[in-house]
Amino acid sequence: KAKAQDEEEIDSSKYFENRCRTVQKARAQGGDASPYPHKFDVDMSLSAYIKRYSHLADGSREPELVRLAGRLQNIRSAGKSLKFYDLHGEGHKIQILAQEE
User: Fold this and answer.
1) What is the pLDDT of residues 36-68, one digit of tens each?
2) What do you get for the CA distance between the two ends of the chain, in Å?
3) Is 3 helix (H, G, I), strand (E, B) or coil?
4) What is the pTM assigned to this prediction?
5) What CA–CA distances, in Å, run from 64 to 4, 37, 42, 50?
6) Does domain 40-101 have CATH number 2.40.50.140?
């Protein structure tokens, strides 16, 4: 992909220094400005999610909101309003389809 003209190439040491300054500023502000939040409420593990919802047909929807945790390893777009996310964790991978409303 072509880089934006105003985007500057930063070597890894400069990036690290900039990130350290940002983290120090956030820590100095205190309150909820932590650069590394320590808590994220998860409703179920990926294993439990797969077990609970694997019977659903492709393209079906559940109205229930579920909070999962894992590592996003791939993000793809299909048009302007569709995004696909690959979430990995516990030796499993799930694909999340998100549509802008």
Assistant:
1) 666 788 999 999 999 999 999 988 888 889 999
2) 27
3) coil
4) 0.59
5) 40, 25, 14, 15
6) yes
